[in-house]
Design a protein that fits this description.
Helix content: 25-40%
Structural class: alpha/beta
CATH class: Alpha Beta
Strand order of the largest sheet: 4-1-5-10-9-6-7-8
Largest sheet: 8 strands, parallel
Low-confidence stretches: 1-5
CATH topology: Arginase, Chain A
Shape: globular
Number of strands: 10
Number of helices: 7
Length: 280
């Protein structure tokens, strides 16, 4: 890939930072506006832009941990153009960009888009780091082998990751299909943090599907599921994982913006910034 780092554009500038320096940045925001088929809506392709636009209203100083994480350097890539040919080609494009980010020593945070985009990032991390755990915070197990004629559907993403030989831990799960084989799965409202962390290897990739959250605070998802995690228990879990394990990368996916309803967009942007603040 001759030029995998796209120039940042002001409309897609995470946190509205006035100055961005790729070389100095520790964190790179990688937005992937991809959606194939999702329930009765396909608006998750608009999720990354909504998160970035909402992020401009976030205070950079975090009162909980008493620091401004943006001072560590955050660089925003332009929206990636998904392939119109196949989901496999989109996965390959994602992997190429994340390969470059990891080789440059960056901490990538990918914004989706539907959950299938996680596979490309995890493939790149697998080549770079070898063994690590994938911590999936999600309402759905996403362990189908095939769905709607493809093995690259968002309902299959964790099966494809397991096929890479990686261990997965699933938290917040409350909807599965018959025949899916769960291991290290914590069905919500079960949230035993110590037991969850005990299943994780030293290095952890975090994938956060926003439908893990209760629809009362996160209605803007492609496949909302009744019940779910609250804001503070979510932050407590991520903070504890980051203190006891090394989170090597992350993604936040499945925001399906609802016109005129900005609170979920802001929540997603705040969650991304909290993840950054806990990790760097």
């Amino acid at each position: 890939m001759e030029k995998p780092i796209y120039p940042t554009l002001e409309p897609f500038n995470f946190l509205g930072l006035n100055e961005q320096d790729y070389e100095a940045a520790k964190v790179v925001i990688f937005p992937v506006p991809y959606s194939s088929t999702t329930y009765w809506k396909a608006g998750t392709k608009d999720g990354p832009q909504a998160i970035i636009e909402a992020s401009r209203h976030i205070e950079l100083y975090d009162v909980e941990i008493k620091k401004d994480a943006s001072k560590q350097g955050i660089f925003t890539l332009e929206l990636m153009e998904p392939s119109k040919n196949s989901p496999e080609e989109t996965t390959a494009r994602i992997k190429n960009v994340v390969d470059k980010l990891l080789n440059d020593g960056k901490f990538p945070i990918m914004l989706g888009g539907e959950h299938s985009i996680t596979l490309g990032a995890v493939q790149a991390f697998k080549e770079k780091f070898g063994e690590f755990s994938v911590l999936q915070i999600d309402a759905h197990s996403d362990l189908r082998n095939e769905f709607e004629g493809t093995k690259f559907h968002h309902a299959c993403v964790m099966k494809r990751i397991k096929d890479l030989g990686l261990s997965i831990t699933q938290v917040g799960i409350r909807s599965i299909s018959e025949g899916e084989k769960l291991e290290n799965a914590f069905m919500f409202p079960e949230l035993p943090v110590d037991k969850i962390i005990a299943t994780l290897k030293e290095k952890v990739y975090l994938t956060f599907d926003l439908d893990a959250l209760d629809p009362s605070i996160m209605p803007s998802t492609g496949t909302p599921e009744p019940g779910g995690l609250g804001w503070y228990e979510t932050l407590s879990l991520i903070k504890e994982v980051s203190s006891q394990r090394k989170i090597i990368g992350a993604d936040v996916v499945e925001l399906d913006p609802i016109p005129g309803l900005s609170a979920p967009d802001f929540l997603a942007a705040k969650l991304v910034y909290k993840i950054i603040s806990y990790i760097i």
